[in-house]
Amino acid sequence: MPLAIEVNGLRKAYNGAEVVKGIDLQVKKGELLALLGPNGAGKTTIVSMLSTLIKPDGGTALVAGYDAAAQAHEVRRNISLTGQFAALDEGLTGHQNIVMIARLYGYSSKNASVLADELIASFGLSDAKDRIVQTYSGGMRRRLDIIASVINQPEIIFLDEPTTGLDLQSRMQVWDVVRTLLKRGTTVLLTTQYLEEADQLADRIVIIDKGSIVAEGTPTQLKASTGGKTLSIQLQHQVNAIDIERLLASQHLTLLQNTDPLLLKIPVTEARCANQIIQLLLENDTPISHFSLSDPSMDEVFLTLLQSSSKEVVL
Amino acid sequence: MNKTNALPQTAPDHSLFVRQFKKPVSANALAAVRIFVWRTWKHTSNNLFAYGMDVVLSPVLTLLIFTYLFGGAIAGSTTAYLQYFLPGFLLLTILPMTVYSGTTLCQDIVKGVYNRFRTMPFWQPATMIGSVLMDSLRFASAALVSFGVGMLLGFRPEGGALGAMMALLYTVCFAFSVSWIFSMMGVLVKKPETVSGTSMMLMYPLLFASNILVDSDTMPDWMGVIVELNPVSIAATTARGLMHGTASSGEIAVGVGVCLFLLLLFVPLTIYIYMKKVR
């Protein structure tokens, strides 16, 4: 499968503080890769470098086969970016915004206008098309921004936190649009803070934190590794962790590293597994004090992944 | 080169993205400038009320105040004062508007829309050139309004229609040149407020320590020298001379020279800084 984006050792520092610390990424043509991470993880910086907004300090980034640093103009022909904040002209109407972008891409003013009308209609914004963007809601702006991004039928679309700050309905609409893009064979690099969003849309997820890749894999792989749920078992007294690990391994389960020797954390995909694990441990005389089953929060996912990253999570 | 095939291609597989045109070649430099002129024009027409206030109401009010409040005191009669004052007044009303070129540019860059422009394949300086060109239309409208009201109040250009046209044209050219100073500031600084704040500090001494309002002959010698060296005075002298048909070729040359100097210095500088910013 040919690659749409190929990144090797990408680095960026601001005022001496390294925010992207040597990232390697491969995005296949037509797939959606989600960069998942908390605020300040370096997601936007990575997207900015790939979309020619800023220059990397080190490493290479090939986007649609061109070097993002040296061949910015060629890269720009093949990409579009929907940034974290809607990149719209607030003083123009929705329709005028789209006409402007379409004309810059080379459409005649007549075709630009027809195209704008049709795209705006298909995104359900027809009623608002002659209103100044300043009066638009967050969800409307986001949709208009995405229209602006799809005009030139780019090979690759960067979506930087496209649903941050949107209500549920608007979020679903954005997801629908993203799915349509994928159906048409567009390659999408999406950044998000929401595990659910990555889960819904991504072919592969790369989890980054503090400028480095913590884990990567398909949503299923990641869920299996970090657990759809986390089973926490409190022990009465310390036991040999190796024995427990071996026991779990026989059931294709892993024990997550953590600092508390009296606490076992085991990712499970469903509640039924938890029952089996408890039973298995009790049959082997594990001194269980109490246990609980909970959804891993985003923080816990990072925590678990960071804790196990010394072992290098290979998924 | 903007012609594209308008026929719809095969039916799309989804209700979104209704029709596809053949992917065209991106706008060339000239087309891009035209599109940005169009953009600024749409800004103006979407906001006609503010525009009207700007180019009609404020020049008219200022002209009335200066003529009737100060005219008698400065020149003995309002009509005599108007004959002296009006050509320079065109500058007094237009030059503060040149600051907008910088503030809007800065605002654009700070807000998200430039992030889109910067990831698009067209000649990037078009964004600035288009907007500053369109600003000149604002200058021209304000100059025409001021001139028209001046005529109503009794101003008569002694250089005739040709002289008046030349003077108006020169005034707009001078404002266009000055607007590049603020455009440069607009791409240089981080906040639009910095442009407006700094510009007021720069603009007011230049406007009032000039011969726009009062002939420099009436000032103490040392002040007169400073005032005569002020580029705004040079421009006002040129405009006055053109308007009344008294300008010597030397005066015209110096007046045009100031414009050229500003343009040759600040246009390349602005584009350079901007391109470095967007690389």
Quick gist of this model?
The complex is a heterodimer of chains A (315) and B (279). Chain A has 315 residues and is an alpha/beta fold. Chain A has eleven helices and 13 strands.
**What structural class do you assign from the helix and strand content of chain B?**
mainly alpha
Biggest sheet layout of chain A: 6 strands, mixed
Second CATH tier, the architecture of the largest domain in chain A: 3-Layer(aba) Sandwich
Provide the gyration radius of chain B in Å: 22 Å
What is the strand tally of chain B? Answer: 0
Ordered list of secondary-structure elements with their pairings:
The complex is a heterodimer of chains A (315) and B (279).
Chain A: E1 3-14, E2 17-28, E3 32-36, H1 43-50, E4 58-63, E5 66-67, H2 72-78, E6 79-82, H3 94-104, H4 109-122, H5 138-150, E7 156-160, H6 168-183, E8 187-192, H7 195-201, E9 204-209, E10 212-217, H8 219-226, E11 229-235, H9 241-250, E12 263-268, H10 271-283, E13 288-294, H11 298-308
Parallel strand pairs in A: 3-8, 3-9, 6-7, 7-8
Antiparallel strand pairs in A: 1-2, 1-4, 4-5, 9-10, 11-12, 11-13
Helix pairs in contact in A: 3-4, 5-6
Chain B: H1 29-46, H2 48-75, H3 78-110, H4 113-118, H5 126-152, H6 160-188, H7 192-208, H8 221-229, H9 231-244, H10 249-278
General description of the model:
The complex is a heterodimer of chains A (315) and B (279). The longest helix of chain A is centred in the middle third of the chain and has 16 residues, at 168-183. The model of chain A is unreliable at 310-315 (pLDDT under 50). Chain A is built from eleven helices and 13 strands. Chain A is an alpha/beta fold and 315 residues long. In chain A, the strands form three sheets. Chain A has a six-stranded mixed β-sheet with strand order 6-7-8-3-9-10, with helices on both faces. In chain A, 44% of the residues are buried. In chain A, helix 3 (94-104) packs across helix 4 (109-122) and helix 5 runs parallel beside helix 6. The radius of gyration of chain A is 23 Å and the shape is elongated. Chain A folds into two domains: 3-217, P-loop containing nucleotide triphosphate hydrolases (Rossmann fold, 3-Layer(aba) Sandwich), CATH 3.40.50; 227-295, Alpha-Beta Plaits (2-Layer Sandwich), CATH 3.30.70.1150. With 279 residues, chain B is mainly α. Chain B has one domain (27-278). Chain B contains ten helices and no strands. The longest helix of chain B has 33 residues, at 78-110. Chain B is elongated and about 70 Å long. The two termini of chain B are 27 Å apart. Chains A and B meet through helix 2, strand 6, helix 3, helix 4 and helix 6 of A and helix 1 and helix 4 of B.
